[in-house]
Design brief:
mainly beta; eight-stranded mixed sheet; Tumour Suppressor Smad4; five-stranded antiparallel sheet; 9% helix
Length: 298
């Protein structure tokens, strides 16, 4: 996942009762692997529909330098949904300083009633009012309000998502081949920018009789390796822009394991209010990976 997805996140899926239409191939794997996969899916599902899940998002508003008024009234710079207060407040952006002010008595900042407060991107200062809340995100040199609603229609209408059946053949041994010198990986995003992320090197493995390599992002040893990829199912049975997978850091010999059963769609497959990275062109697997998360429109 992208960092915030890796940090925050990571994953989702249907609870066991939502899985009956998929028979699992367990002929060559022990039951503990399947149970771990099912547990992983429950964690991933919480990333979608939990308290801070992606499907609770109802707005993304990019801020301009200076004053940014917010609320549902049409006179605001940024229009919130109709059920939000007419006037929530004002966000003043200057360089990296973000000041929020409000005259609305029902607005709280981190649970406290205040009229003026600094908003921290790092600490995700939360501004709440009714069923709504927001915090500020930073992407490259741009800032945005990410608005959440506990009663989001996307959340209420969510019917679960689907995965291919578990298949042990897609659990493959891999080797991390690091770069000889530090290297940045240019990563395009859905909102039209480029980020420069630290490359961990290439994860190399064999699958369906072929050798493959995928460049991985290094967000620090406290996070797994982050791999974005496309394959021949992309745009067919899986999300068109590609999928993500988290890979454990290798041992001292450089060996690790990739479990493609845990390949998941970017948050952008589930919401229009995410800021997803896109797989680099060379991270294409020239075969059909009929494993991991399937794609359907919510």
């Amino acid at each position: 996942m992208i960092k915030n997805i890796v940090v925050s996140g990571i994953l989702i899926i249907v609870l066991l009762q939502a899985m009956p239409c998929f028979a699992q191939d367990t002929s060559e794997t022990d039951l503990s692997s399947v149970e771990e996969w099912q547990q992983w899916r429950e964690v991933y599902r919480d990333e979608l529909i939990g308290e801070h899940g992606w499907l609770k998002l109802v707005g993304l508003y990019w801020l301009k330098t200076g004053s940014n008024s917010i609320g549902s009234h049409e006179s605001n710079n940024h229009f919130f949904p109709d059920s939000a207060p007419l006037f929530v407040g004002n966000i003043k952006l200057k360089d990296d300083s973000i000041e929020f002010s409000t005259e609305n008595p029902n607005v709280r900042v981190n649970g406290k009633k205040v009229s003026v407060s600094q908003l921290s991107v790092k600490d995700k200062t939360e501004v709440s009012f009714g069923t709504y809340s927001f915090y500020i995100i930073k992407r490259e040199n741009k800032f945005a309000v990410r608005l959440r609603d506990k009663n989001s229609p996307f959340y209420k209408n969510f019917k679960g998502e689907r995965f291919y059946p578990f298949n042990s053949k897609y659990i493959v041994e891999a080797t991390l081949v690091p770069h000889k010198t530090d290297r940045k990986l240019k990563v395009a995003t859905v909102y039209g920018t480029l980020s420069n992320d630290k490359s961990a090197g290439f994860v190399e493995f064999e699958l369906n009789g072929k050798r493959h390599r995928l460049e991985a992002v290094d967000y620090g040893k406290e996070y797994p390796l982050f791999v974005m990829f496309r394959d021949k199912t992309s745009g067919d049975t899986t999300y068109g822009a590609g999928r993500f997978i988290d890979v454990d850091w290798p041992n001292e010999e450089g060996a690790t394991t990739i479990d493609f059963n845990r390949a998941y769609s970017p948050a952008c497959a589930h919401t229009a209010y995410a800021t997803c990275p896109l797989p680099p062109k060379h991270n294409f697997i020239d075969t059909r990976l009929e494993v991991g998360e399937l794609y359907k429109v919510h």
